[in-house]
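so the lab meeting is tmrw and i was supposed to have these ready like two days ago... anyway. pasting both below. for each one the top line is the aa sequence and the line under it is the structure tokens. i havent really looked at them closely yet so no promises
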Amino acid sequence: MVSNENPTSPSVASFFSGIGGFDLGFERAGFHITMQCEIDPFCNDILTKHWPTVKRYKDIREVSYADVPSSDVWVGGFPCQDVSLARMGARKGLKGKRSSLFYEFARLIGEGLPSIIVLENVAGLRNSHGGRDFQTIIHTLAELGYSVGWRVFNSKYFGVPQSRQRVYIGGWYREGRGPAEILFESECSNGNDAPGGQDEEELIPTFKTSFGDLSKGPIVQGLAYCLYACSARHTGTDWSRTYVTYPDGRVRRLMPVECEGIQGFPTNWTLPTKIPDDVEKLDTIRYTALGNAVTVPAIEWLARRIQPVLHRMNMPKVMKEEMNLEVDLQTLRSGVLAS
């Protein structure tokens, strides 16, 4: 893969990078990656494979603002383990060892004040500790001077056969119009899941729809259930997981390469630079990394909507005022014509 390293293109600093879902999505939209921060050794190997020249740090707790290259956008999917409904037992929320790393990200944001920040997490973040954790995140960003918006997206509306709901939080530094322009569309009026006003009945296969060779197999359902970091394991109770079946009665789980596809990654994206002898262990690691990843086409969609807002934010003040005046005049004319 050839990274977009054009210094004139908009830039992204990636935190909690994982296997590079945010990075790949933004890169496809014309951004270039300035740095990555990821503590997991396997994920770091994958990042090095695809972005060999990008500056990289391991532990966000050891990163200072001086380490972060000048970047237009900062992105990060901070750890979800302590806020996820998929975890058994009580959720520790932002007090948990992993999810509390949000505060380290907030520390850097407060020092750097990038123009735009984008965070991603499980939808369960919204009700963690009765919604108090989510409120803390929104208030933290607002106190730093950001206009904040959020929206839940389902990956099935972005061209991948997976039902996966995730909440995306955007912050725009001293820019009030950004959240609405990027996260929401005027033509989308039926809920907050489908961008572009897509018709679910026409475009999205259901869990009951199956594809494949009915005489020989394999047969797969048209829409996969949400991939979790533990999707490779069959516990006896996880009947909501997606399986591949055969007419002779055989059943198997999805292979890592198939999971890559339903997350929007290229084939063999998660193959490490050196293949270990224990292939089964490698598969488990790949499943975990993919279950923790963002869906690439959803990120690309967001990145493309960020471009024009970022362009406006970087305009000189006089040009911004002229643009706002033009918008006000258009609004006035529309009102006069409507009356």
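ok protien two:
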Amino acid sequence: MFGLQRKRRVGVAAAVVLGVALVATGCAGGTGGDGGGDGGGGGDDANLSITMLPKNLGNPYFDTSTGGAEEATEEFGGTFEEVGPSEASPTSQVQYIQTAAQQGAGGLIVSANDPEAICDALDEARSAGVKVVTFDSDTNPECRDLFINQATAEGIAKVQVDLIAEQIGDGGQVAVLSASANATNQNAWIEMMEEELAASHPDIELVEVVYGDDDDQTSFDKTAALLQTYPELKGIISPTTVGIAAAARYLSTSEYKGTVALTGLGTPNQMREYVEDGTVTAFALWNPADLGYLAAYAAQALITGEIAGEEGDTFEAGKLGDFEVGADGGVLLGDPFVFDAENIGEFDF
């Protein structure tokens, strides 16, 4: 299904529009400068045209990260465009990657719906000179220049397991309500949750992982089905902002409110009413605005040649300060943060 496009001009127009000759070569290229073609350039000649491609449009989490990327792009004087599909399917992003390259984008910021399905399109874009930065959900490392990681997978998994264990008394049945079955980040977190449960919480049984496809109604229905299938269920972990909000909406008006715990990853604005009414005790996240902001500055650093994306490279990201490129072209934003009734009123995103 075709999605929507939102385009904004912020700051100074990009000075260079690249001619594009797309060549399908698979996921070639490393995490350094070789795979990114010659789209970079120092000083005023840099093509600071940034295209943002989230998993899908209309998702509050990605709306927030897009806002952060747009803020950063305005600060460094680039142009900004957000495009994307309406549904988060494995191949739905391909056409937007191809169009961004054809239109001469200097940098492409992508949250991947699938680690492999968009690799050919990304490789074509990089061959055309586009610098590719993934955020939130990565591709295979050889398919992009940098990955902006919101937190370590281990840290994200552990904070959610710790929260559900505390809320259900460290024993009983739990389920996971995830996004799509192909989501790179979700699958990594769930695998590590399973390891953490087995190692540190032997009395907690993970009975099933279900997928709401980052769709509100599907996630709502999956929550209802879990509770019908597992009458002894004590808790649900939903490591997706769409899923946790949909699950909370179901629980808040059901007989399970206050008896089935819910935690995972959500935004304060989505979850505030459910924390305040007692449906949810606590959940976690990072600031998605900071994630988008950092991704945009990383793209700028690649485009201008400040960094090549090699391990040990450092760059400055505006108000967030300095960052260093780690192994496999990864850049770490920071640790997850826990939101609860005591602090949720202090945040607005």
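from a quick look at the 2nd one: The radius of gyration is 20 Å. The longest strand covers residues 204-211. will dig more after coffe
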